[in-house]
Each structure stands twice: as structure tokens, then as C-alpha cells.
Fold this sequence. Notes:
This protein is of the alpha+beta class. Helix content is about 35%, strand content about 20%. It has twelve helices and 13 strands.
Amino acid sequence: MSPLSIRINGIGKAYPDTVFAKEEYLELLVARVKPCRNLAKLIAVVKASQIETRHAVIPIGHEMLSRPVVPTIKELNDIFSIEAPKYAKLAAERAIEDWGGHVAGITHVVTATVTGVMNPGLDYHLQQSLKLSPTVERYNLSGVGCAGGLATLRLATNLAKAHGPGARILVCCVELCTLYAAQRFFQCTDDAPLDVAAALFGDGASALVVEGVADGTIPTSGSTGRTTPPSEDVEGDLGESAGDHLFEIVDHVVSTHTSSVDDLGFRLENDGYQILLTRNVPILAAETLPPLVQTLFSRLPASPSSSSASSPAPFISASSIPFLIHPGGPAVLQVLEKCMGLNPWQTKSSWQVMSKRGNTSSATIFAVLDAFRDEASSKDGPAAALGKDNPDGYAMAAAFGPGVTTECVLLKAGPRIGAGVRGRTEA
């Protein structure tokens, strides 16, 4: 079998209509949290967060935000069960539109969420809402938190490798984090540990279409590699040509830090969900990321465009490529920039997403990839986004989740990076 290239062909995002500007969010905190020292600390975190806007599934003025009693877990999960499938469908439709194919070409579905419980899961609801084939293979990841985007991408990559050419995997992450942030407002007292998560998170969904393509080939028009009939009769192409992609997935690596399970996570308590997020997370991320980056660099062959093509030494460095990092918060980005020696241009997309959307957990990293695509399509062009010493167009994506687990993916820019957008509906 010919070697496979695993490619990202489309990206889609979806966000609730309600947008809290920073000042509006601060007003909500003051209105809902009883005066205490922790309130002052929480306000300080919001002001320093560099998050200018965030989306929320609960509208401004909703009775849940003004009632005197804390919302129950059932009330919040009922909202999640109604709203999460809606945003998953919208993000998935936009990713498929961006790809240029048809739902009948989808062979696998991979989803992730940690902010709600549904059984059957999000993968089932996405299959039903998009009218995918009943024989589409489905996978739903749980407990992966902010690393969930790259964890689903890793699974999609392995599925594409296992099933060969024609496998098209729809990947979707949905998180409605503010549901539980609203609950924690009622529990912010000086008798409880400060929960900074309420200051950092927003709501959103994002999706990708991932495909495995045999190197040196172009798929036959309309061919999906399926062994089962599509869910409906479709005229025309089910997918785009092999060369029409956003990113190629070159390699990936994952590592879990030992003895850090209490530093980052999501727990169900008697009074609701509690997000674990300690001051150690940026330090743990800084300890884990550099060796993973070097591992990925060391696996690369010599560059075809390098003058020393026969040299076994890595031909790229951390200083020469963009880093598309999950923006867990300003402290995470700042510490990683320092420990990796990164310049502002390398993490620009991460800062942009954090400023505009906040931390939307697993859904964030695909938004960072999309922001990078937009940056490469701006007036400065792909050369400025990719870096002048990066002739092969590499980019490093990284995210951190419970464990603490670090997911790292080495990407290579495809023909559509810097070529504008095709039929994309902007979220």
C-alpha cells in the first residue's frame, strides 16, 4: 500500500449568540457573587485575563442568572443536552462546507466534550442531525478536557491510517463551560478555594474533516472508499481533490505528567461541577512541551528544500515555525513563550482566539488553526504567518488536558493556507 498523507480538509466553528464583553462579565460577577475577598481576586483575574469577549449559551438577563438559589446539575445538564447538539451540527456543517464535500462522504465520526452528559452521546446526535449513514463508525471521547481537540485529531489520524484511502473522519468538539461557571458564582466565598476557571472560560464548538490520501494519487471523483451505501442519493462529487487541503498531519505525540492528577480536571461534587485548575499547570506544561517538540523534530527526514539534504540533523527549530497553542490562559502562553524562546508572531493566533473567545476547552484548538488560516490569508500573506526560515511550512499545535496530559501535533501547511477561503460561513 502506498504511504498515506493525513490531511485536514475543512474547519468549522459555531458560537452562541450571547457575547459578554469584559465589562459586562465583570458586572455579572459583581451582581451574582456575594462580596468577599475571593470576589476581589476573581475580578482581578478577569481584568488580567486579556479576554475581551466570550460567548455564553445562557443569554444576558436569563432568570437563572438572577434567581436567589443555585441552579441544579439537572437544570444545567438539560440546557447542555438541548444546546450542545445544535452547535455541534452547525460547526460540523461549516467544516463540511469548507471541505467542499458532502455528508455522504463521511465514514467516521469522532466527538469530545466534558461539560455535559448525554447517553447516547454527542457522536450519536451528530450522526442523526446530519443524517449520516447508520453504518458510520462513531467514537466519543470523555475526560480529555482542554486536550480533547488534539486527542480527537490523534484518534482521527489513526483511524485514517488504519482504514486507508477514502476514510473521511468528521471530528467535532463542543463545550458549554459557562453553564458551570454560572453555578460557581453562587459558591464563591472566602470559605472555599478560589475557582479561577469562571474567569477564563467561554462556550463554543468546532469541527474538522480529516482524510487519508495515498501519496502521489488523486481520488477518483465521487469515490469515498465506502463499503456501505451513503445515507441518500447524491449527485456530483463527495469530496475535493487530494491537493486541496489546509494542513497535512505530519506526526503526533502525547505524554502524561506523573503525579499531577489534582492539578487539572473536572469533578462532580454534591453542589455541582468543580473545575480543578491550579497554579502548577503552566509549570507542568513548560516541563512537558519542550521534549515533545524535540521528539517530533527528531523524527523528521532531511528537508527536500534544505541545502544539507543528506544531514540527519533536524532542519527546523522552535524559533522558526508558528506555535498554535491551546490558550488555557495568559499564564500558560506566557510561560511557554519564555521556556521555548518563542517570539510574538509565533503565538499570535493563540492570543487572538483567547482575546475573542476565551478558553472553550476542547473546542479551542481548532479555532486556533482557523485563526492561523485567516492570518495566512491576510495582507501580510502566508510567508509572514509561517516564518521566513520555514520553507516547508511546518507548524506545531499543542494542548494540555487533565492528567496533566500534553498533546502535540506537527502540521504542514497545505495549498489552501494563504489562498483565502472557499465557501466558508464565518462563525
